[in-house]
Design a protein that fits this description.
This protein has helices spanning 13-37, 45-68, 74-89, 96-104, 108-119, 128-143, 147-150, 165-196, 199-230, 234-257, 261-264, 268-275, 284-292, 351-360, 362-424, 428-455, 458-462, 465-474, 493-514, 549-559; strands at 298-303, 308-310, 316-317, 326-333, 336-344, 480-485, 519-526, 529-536, 563-567, 574-581. With 584 residues, it is an alpha+beta fold. The protein has 4 domains: 13-258, Rhopdopsin 7-helix transmembrane proteins; 266-379, Beta-Lactamase, CATH 3.30.450; 384-455; 463-581, 2-Layer Sandwich (Heat Shock Protein 90).
Length: 584
Amino acid sequence: MVTPDGTRSPLPRSLGRALVLLAISALTLGAVQLALVLPTAGGAWWVHLLFILVFWVYVAAGLLAWWRRPSNRMGSLIVVGGLALFAGSLGNTGVPVLAAVGTVTATLVLAVAFHLLHAFPSGRLRSRASRVTVAAGYVVALVLQAPLYLFDPGAPVPLAVADRPDLLMLGVAVQRVGGIAVAAATTVLLARRLVRSDAAHRQVLGPVFGYGIAAVILIPASATLFEAVLGLPVVARAGLQALLLGGVPIAFALGVLRGGFARTGELEELGTWLGASGGARPALAAALRRALGDDSLDVVFWMPDTRTWADSDGVPVQLPPPGGERAGVEVEVGGRTVGAIVYDASLIADAELVRTAGRVIAIAMERERLTAELLASQDALRTSRARLVAAADRERRRIAQNLHDGLQVQLVLLALEAQQVANASTSTPVQDRATSLRKGIDDAAADLRRLVHDVMPSTLIEQGLSAATEDLVDRIPVPTRLHLGITDGALPQAIESTAYFVVAEGLANALKHSGAAAFTVRIERRGDRLLVEVHDDGVGGASFSPGRGLRGLADRVEVVNGRLEMQSAVGRGTRLSAELPCVL
């Protein structure tokens, strides 16, 4: 499985380690049993070896299915069947405790085989009838097995309690009848499933069900059948039983891994996903990954306005080219393309399965496409507004710089010339007129400085946010406490400008409307966020009313992806706070 970063990760690392550990454990258990059995096996050594090989086949087939389909329980069930077979074969070891375990679990593998038949292909029991039948199978294999060792003096010492041939024969008969009943119920239920399935599914279900039923019926009957019909000795009959058992995991594993059908068993998870409430429902892509067994799977959406693909956040993406390790299948609703499923083509060989999954969740994908389209539109709008604000700030800075360096300097020079005229003249009227002209020029220069400051403070341009805020606070006629926790030059110009105007607008509104006796201004950086706060102890009652300066300030803060809040209870003052990103 290819992950989004290009690395290959077939399944979660913890599950991979667990499967490797299971494989090593199975090899070790088989080797230990062979070491215990072969020295005394004589001419039957090959039968013991064959049973261990079959055990290893079970584990290998189960681990393969588990690895390829982590969300499907069939793999783990096949491994359990192998362990049941191994436990039943421990009766051949000659070790009393192990022989007792083997005697108790001698027919457990047949119960697991019934379980596999009912659970195929998803690994889950589909109906109440199947659950009852499987439970009955385990009762027959474990509970009804008890008389066969409790009343048999030849059973391992810890198990036999009495020599009662009559109860032993009754137990054998009851277990045989129970096994036949379970097999008959299983055959009926599976036949009904075959009849209700379509032709494509029957191509997979038929062989698997047919072989499974034949195996679980022939294995217990083989002792009589092979001896009476074929005249085979005990060792040969045991070998044939092992071969019949060995085909069971192979049949189920092939069914799980074959084409699309095995995976469509997991598509029922998508129906559960669609039926879940919004709060309990995982993300669409996550539901698909779990259902299709591909952790690298992703969902993208078609944006008809821009004729591009976008991810769930509205970020433009491209579908993978055909013929590569990654593939994409488009999803349609009513003949309209709404999105696509991008998956690992080396893991999911059948594109029709992915297309089927897309049809299951098409309506949900259309809803999420609309959400992604809205996010993309919001991002485009926010980007456009940010560009406009940045352009306006640049223009304000340019105008302020030109006024400060051009017109203001010219006014200062004219004032100096007027003063020189006044000083050089001996005529009192001329002196008075020149002095009056100089004062008028000084007043005009002062008005110009105020205009420059309103457009964009030169202190903010030249020295940064801290110096500009200190200068602003110094000019406030109300006592103001200032707390600064920033380093000038470390913030983008747009953030510095926005923070400054938050302080300026907050103080201006407080001066006009609050009637406060004191103000507090706080600017500090916390991680990747800049916090700006203006607080007064006035009358409160402020609001973000349309047409007011605070409403425009809120828009400006939103443009830079910030947040502006205000607490202004009547009689308890006003607290204006902004949270701005430190990086755009």
